[in-house]
Amino acid sequence: MKKAGIEVVLDTQYAAGVKDITATLAEIKRLQPDAVVNLSYPPDAILYMRGAREQGITAPFQFLLVGPTAAFFSKMFGKNLDNIVTMGHWSPAKTDWPGAKEFFDAYQAKTGEAPDYLDAVLSYVSAQILEQAVAKAGLDKDALRKEISTDTFSTINGPIKFEGVQNVTTPTMFLQFQDGAVQIVHPPEMATAKFRPKLKWEQ
Questions:
Q1: Count of structural domains, the chain
Q2: What is the mean pLDDT of the segment spanning 132-150?
Q3: Bridge partner residues of 185 (DSSP)
Q4: pLDDT surpasses 90 at 164
Q5: Is this entry keyworded Cell cycle (predicted)?
Q6: Which of 1, 46, 133, 149 has the most CB atoms lying inside 10 A of its own CB?
Q7: What is the CATH number of the domain that holds 29?
């Protein structure tokens, strides 16, 4: 961040399994930064959400690494999740990805909740890739491995191609919750909506 010309006003860590981050949040509140980047797991993402609302942290950009994409997170925080940014690369609003909205609707109809925007999607995409590869190469493991490592596959996450084991077509993306829906806000060429600043919390 410093190399990019971004002033870092606080760089701190908390212990794994932490139960209270009040002091850290109070320092963030005092510093009034433009952005908060919390490289969290779900339990500490929950602590952040609760504490940031209680302390009224209104940094326009608030990023939580892992947690917000899970269905339970939306149930837990409702409208307070709006305009929070997280790691992710899929949205049912991406109309040029075949089957994206259909997958979302079918999952919701079957389970009664939205899919996890990371794990559920990655599992389904993996099955799509395997299905297409088997259709072309059969079940021989060497032929199957070669097919998966060289072909391009149509998925609900867009076209996917591997070079070896590396997915070379899906860029790093950021998701943002907007009015209860998950939108891709970065990179711009993949976005389903424009970024919205986090300016308030519901009480």
A1: 2
A2: 96
A3: none
A4: no
A5: no
A6: 133
A7: 3.40.50.2300
Per-residue burial over 97-136, b if 16 or more Cβ lie within 10 Å, else e, is beebeebbeebeeeeeebbbbbebbeebbeebbeebbeee
Determine if the pTM surpasses 0.70: yes
Q: Which domain holds residue 123?
A: 100-167
Q: Please, what is the average pLDDT of the chain?
A: 95
Residues 147 and 67 in one domain: no
Residue 52 has pLDDT above 90, yes or no: yes
Decide if 94 is inside a domain.
no
User: Is 43 a domain residue?
Assistant: yes
Residue 203 has pLDDT above 80, yes or no: no
Q: What is the mean pLDDT of residues 109-135?
A: 95
Residue 95, domain member (yes or no): no
> Residue 149: what are its φ and ψ, rounded to 5°?
-85, -5
DSSP string, 16-82: TT-S--HHHHHHHHHH--SEEEE---HHHHHHHHHHHHHHT---SEEEESSSTTSHHHHHHHGGGGT
- Look at residue 54 and tell me if it is in a domain: yes
Q: 146, 162 in Cβ contact below 8 A?
A: no
Short-list 158, 125, 156, 137, CA closest to 148: 137
200 and 120 housed in the same domain:
no
- Same domain as 65, residue 20: yes
